[in-house]
Amino acid sequence: MASNSSSGQRGGIQQVEMPYMPDYASLDTRIRSFRNWNYGHVQDPTRLAEAGLYYTGPEDEVRCFHCDGGLRDWLVTDDPWHEHARSFAGCNFLQLVLGETYISEVLRNGNVGIADEGCTTSSATVSQTSSSSTTSIERLREENNRLKEERECKICLTREVGVVFCPCGHLVSCVQCAPAIYNCPVCRALITGRIRTFLS
């Protein structure tokens, strides 16, 4: 197995590289590749797919859609992101999603946890005592929904946006959907670079 050696980054902007298997650039397609996966007791197919891996067989062999790195002989304790980064640190997809710091930590220390990108929110129950407070609450809910929609990936409509496309500057895609997009969905400009963003 060989790994990509070039980082594809210049000045914080990730240069667009064609994935080795563009048919598997979509997370949903990678998940579907695990249809005949018989190792669910060892590794969760969704976690493997999120780490850029799709099932090829035989046995428990998976490959990265972007760098074509292959991994197998999974243990229950293996973290797909960690194993992918440890074996194929130059993978353009890994660098977009995890960043150089995470990959360097994996290579240096071996044990690094990945934070869940999902944002969890709790809903509070508000007692309404007057019609004016009801109106205020409705306005707040509408604004909250609008803000959530602004931060939502316009491709999958489930995850938070996290990649700015260059040169147009549109922020419309999550890190899972971005590798499958070559023209900006907003302005149709050819994407020549990607910048990973973190919204606070």
- CATH level-3 fold name of the largest domain: Inhibitor Of Apoptosis Protein (2mihbC-IAP-1), Chain A
Average pLDDT value?
81
The tally of domains stands at 2
How far the N terminus sits from the C terminus, by CA atoms, comes to 38 Å
- List the uncertain runs: 1-7, 113-131
SSE string: EEHHEEEHHHHEEE
Strand content: 5-15%
CATH homology group of the largest domain: Inhibitor Of Apoptosis Protein (2mihbC-IAP-1), Chain A
- Give the helix tally: 6
Instruction: Please give the number of β-strands.
Output: 8
Give a written overview of the molecule:
By secondary structure, the chain is of the alpha+beta class. It folds into 2 domains: 17-109, Orthogonal Bundle (Inhibitor Of Apoptosis Protein (2mihbC-IAP-1), Chain A); 148-196, Herpes Virus-1, CATH 3.30.40.10. It is built from 6 helices and 8 strands; from the N terminus they run ββααβββααααβββ. The longest helix is centred in the C-terminal third of the chain and has 21 residues, at 131-151. The radius of gyration is 19 Å and the shape is globular. Residues 1-7 and 113-131 have low confidence and may be disordered. This is RING-type domain-containing protein. Pfam families: BIR, zf-C3HC4_3. Belongs to the IAP family.
